[in-house]
Structures are given as C-alpha cells and as structure tokens.
Amino acid sequence: MKTKVCIYARVSTQSQDYERQLSELREYASRMDYEVVKEFSEKISGAKSVAERLALTELLDYAANNRIDKVLVYECSRISRRAIDFLQVIDQLTQMKVSVYILQNGLETLMADGSVNPIAQLVLGIIGQFNSMERSLIRSRMESGYNHFRSLGGKVGRKVGYRKSDDAMKEQYSKEMSLLRKGLSLRNVQAITGTSLNTLRKVKEYIV
C-alpha cells in the first residue's frame, strides 16, 4: 500500500506564487512513490494565528478525519513564523501519528515505526524559534524605518479612502463569513477565529 500524503504550501502576499513550492513537493512525492491525496495552499501572512489560516485549519481537519501518513511542506516557516503555532501544529499532527516532512531541511518528525524522531523535533524547535526571532527583527527594523520617515514629516499607512477589494476580503475571511451566515454572534466568531471585532464588522457588510 502506498504512503498517503498531503501537501501544504503558503506564501505571504497575493502577489506571490506558491506554484514552485507545490511543484517541488509533487516532484519529491513522485520520486518517493507517495500517493498525494490532497493539496492545501493559501496566501496569508505566516504571522497570522492558526485559527486565521483557512487552508492550514482544513489540513488539520482533514488529517483528523482521513487516513494519511505524512504532510509535505517546503520549509518550516510555511507552517508558521510564530514558534508557538509552529510547534502546536507539529504536535497536533504527531498526536494523529502523521509525520511532517520539511523538504528544505530533509527532516521528518516521525520515524519509520511511527515513533517521534527526537533529532528532528529538536532541530525543528530551534528553527521555529529562529523564524520567530527573524519575524521580530523584521518588525523592529520596519518600525525604526517608519519612525525615521515620520520624523522627516512623512506619513505611513493606507491612503485615505483605501479599502480592500471585495474579492480579497471574501477570500481572506471566507471562514468568518461562513460562521456569520450561520447566525453566530461577532464575539463568538472572534473566539473561534481570533479575528478582531472591528474586522468582523467590516466582513459582515459583505454578507447578503
């Protein structure tokens, strides 16, 4: 019986493309003679919580309700740039006896007999922390740049009257819209998804 795998890919912005990740993961699966049963991909910041990541949430739900052996990911930060979320996802899949294979590092979370790979867990934990630190450094540098720009009289932020396109809103907040259509209150949807009340109020405007 072939090893059943899922593929997960992510990029941070709408202008980026995850096809290269998918292509290399498909090639690896073919080389290993794995059966790819489902692919999950999304365009969203890796700093977002797991609850806000629709495709990642769907992957975890699929793994919980279907027999799969592995999840193939291009590199660690594709899962999350937040160390706590990265480790949480790895732990959830480990509890389901689903191994995670990180292509760029050649690391796999479970051994062939289904036991935890201690070396992979240690290395991935360290990488997760570095990704989180890198995110913090980027934010710090950006804030320093913004402050310098403001000190020179510049203005930072969206232009007056800026609004995300309808399609972008519907794509990014499809889960929130689905819950609101079911009649859940804004606070209940916030508790489930982690999305702010102000954003949910804007999302509600798109529901007809």
Q: What characteristic shape results from the CA principal axes? A: globular
Report on the biggest sheet: 5 strands, mixed
Mean pLDDT: 83
Helix and strand string, N-terminal first? EHEHEHHEEHHHHH
Widest β-sheet, arrangement of strands = 2-1-3-4-5
The rounded distance between the terminal residues' Cα atoms is 47 Å
* CATH fold call of the largest domain: Rossmann fold
- Helicity level: 40-55%
- Secondary structural class: alpha/beta
User: What percent of residues are in strands?
Assistant: 5-15%
Structural domain tally: 2
Q: How many strands?
A: 5
Explain this structure to me?
The structure is a single chain. The protein has 208 residues and is of the alpha/beta class. The chain folds into 2 domains: 4-128, Rossmann fold, CATH 3.40.50; 166-204, no CATH class. Helices cover 51% and strands 13% of the residues. The chain has helices at 19-31, 54-65, 76-79, 83-95, 118-151, 166-172, 174-181, 186-193, 197-204, and strands at 4-11, 35-43, 70-73, 99-102, 107-108. The chain has a 5-stranded mixed β-sheet, sandwiched between helices. The longest helix has 34 residues, at 118-151.
